[in-house]
Design brief:
Helix content: 25-40%
CATH superfamily of the largest domain: von Willebrand factor, type A domain
Oligomer: single chain
Low-confidence stretches: none
Strand content: 15-25%
Keywords: Cell membrane, Membrane, Transmembrane, Transmembrane helix
InterPro entries: UPF0353/GerABKA_families (IPR050768), VWF_A (IPR002035), vWFA_dom_sf (IPR036465)
CATH topology of the largest domain: Rossmann fold
Protein name: VWA domain-containing protein
Shape: elongated
CATH class of the largest domain: Alpha Beta
Number of strands: 13
Number of domains: 2
Distance between the termini: 41 Å
Number of helices: 9
Largest sheet: 6 strands, mixed
Organism: Bacteriovorax antarcticus
Strand order of the largest sheet: 6-5-4-7-8-11
Mean pLDDT: 81
Length: 326
Amino acid sequence: MNFEFQHIHYAIFGGVGLIFWIIGFFYWFKKPQLFIPSKYKKKGIPILRSLIFIMGVVSWLYISFALAGPRRPMGMDKNTIEVNDIFIVLDLSRSMLAEDLKPNRFEAAKQKIQDFVALFPRDRIGIVIFAEKVFTLLPLSTDLNLINKMVAQIKLGVLGDGTNIGDALALGVGRLLQSLAKNKVIILLTDGVSNVGTLTPLQAAEMAAEQKIKIYTIGIGGAKDARIPVGANMFGVQRYQVIPGGSVDEKGLQEIARITGGKFYMARDNKALQNVLGDINKLERTEIEQSGKIIYEELYFKYLLIGVLLLIGAELSRRLLLREGP
């Protein structure tokens, strides 16, 4: 039989019980109360006593086997969940340090992503981060703790200084190609204008539209006088500079959303993302299969019951048939 054991080391307790039972059965280490000369002692071991001894040993073997937690795998439990598949594409360019959102655009965006995850615990969420380079921070996952942990660890400056929106969107599209969900969504959070990359944002949007992937675009900040910190001067006073390259490409983001059937939002304050969350929550979710658990037939009780009954039978036989006992 194909057994698995949950607590195989517990079988040692059954072995210990067997040893003590054998000691008691043969009265080892017990001084006799009556001395019988050897010539009057019966030779050999009576058949009945031998059978009772075998019954007792077998009973403890069953008990030991039961204590090991035997079980038999019966198959996989089919488990389905209803989800949307969502990739968040987050801009990590240096301009995200602008402080027109509090404490700055970058930290505000991270907080909103964590709020988003908390609002949609049923959905599978992945994260792509980009600046000059693009990188998949997290593939699609329903593990809320893992997602929040990964978001909290995001740092600026690790992917260069450019704004590569086109390639970042294309990476998100590629990650969603194998999705079985009816609704596949990309949420783009950026505060700049695409200035590097192999693909333009509109080319990436056309790729998304062909795969029926909606892109919701969110322009972060957008204040014309927004500045980013550049370090302190010789007197310890924080210095700022106007964001190089200008402000949010609102027309470009609107066009990306239009091509894919999504929507464009301008987040000029810390609350603007709530509109996006409300729209996505209305989407119909798709039922998909999730990795199920193995179903086991638990066998320990059956073997424990057999062992206990045999042990009771052996002890009753000793007392009633052999007239042994305390």
